[in-house]
Write the structure tokens for this entry.
Amino acid sequence: MTDAFPFLTSRNPADPADVLLTIPAPGAFAVVDTVERARAAQPGWLLAGAAARSAALGAVADGIEAAAAELAALAVREVGKPIAEATAEVARTVAIWRYYAQAPFRPTGAVHETSAGAGLLLTRRRPHGVAGLITPWNFPFAIPTWKAAPALAAGNTVVLKPAPEATACAQRLAEIVRGALPDAVFTVLPGGPTEGNALVSAADVVSFTGSTPVGRSVARAATARGIPAQAEMGGLNAALVLPDADIGQAAAHIAASIAGYAGQKCTATSRVVAVGAALDPLREALSEALRAVPVGDPADPATVCGPLVDEGARDRMTEATRGLSVLAGGTVPDGPGWYAAPTLVEKVPPGHRLLRDEVFGPVASLLAADDLDHAVRITNSVPYGLVTSVHTADLNTALHGLDLLDTGMVRINAPSTGVDFHLPFGGAKASSHGPREQGAAALGFYTSERTYTLAPAGPGA
């Protein structure tokens, strides 16, 4: 293990000259030391009891709610999230902490009859120890929360390594959380790959959200150590539009899923599959809807599509669309900030990057399908399987999609984006590894089930 100390710099994507912070990365040894302090604090956190853990998580929710406007403004400045979305994210973050504040009171096991004779057979779920969390920049408050809150509710301690681009958001979140929890129960340690690798090598359970290559390496490293791992990775999500759909509504939903937050969501729509006669009206309606999306300063309440997170992200998007038939967008506005217009392309050649890889920008390909079965084959043809939206007025069609689509989530007549934090979240194939996140499923991931046999003492004991 070696320690390197590069500097982490966080910039405003809307104005790259605006530097929020520049700090040295702590290095691998600091990660190991932090994990050991969290491990020493974990038994006391567990033994504090359900009421203490519940009250602490509730206090975190109160602290975040009190700082809501400040946190939303920070997300706008650091990660370029439009203010309307940033405000909604902070509100969801509060709701998630409150949801898991009730979790310490949930049953953690069951009592079973013995096969023969007196005694008790019990099952009981117990925390793993230290949860190592590695989170992305695009939901700088919600994703750390939906990992940390269930881990803490179950009695684990937490070490969080946020993406460098969201360091300021993570540090502010840590200040609020630490104010409600005992020392070393929740720690934020900024950094890059060095710190992330060290955390995977030291924690007792690991949860990751980010790119597919990194997620796979996290899963391999955790598996080699024999610890539980969860990795939420990429998406190449499709929207299927049937001829009987409300084309105007479908176009509005899909445009929002392509362009909202500049397409920087793993649930964003990247492929639009028009079935049969839906193609021509959808082409027109979706192109018009995307051209009408407000693009600009994320601090403006009217903005839907703000900047991409950095120059490299914008360049990857423009390079991916070069030479294609553009129906809407395809331009880069002049001026400061890493902006790109919401873009729809068609006649994309088979095997093209847009049909193979997640670009993570406000761009989608319009594809044609002969019928529903053809549309399903197109949808299932990529390595990813996170979420699919299906737009139709026919219940039979909707049920057909539910049965045959190879994705972890299916949304009927709704945008591909949007999650219900009280339900399991995750995908199929290269989109996810390990158990689901969110809801009660998260509590299962952050605990292990144990079986106890309680037999009566022998005569004279």
Remarks:
- The first helix runs from residue 28 to 47.
- DSSP finds 14 helices and 20 strands in the chain.
- The two ends are 52 Å apart (CA to CA).
- The mean pLDDT is 95.
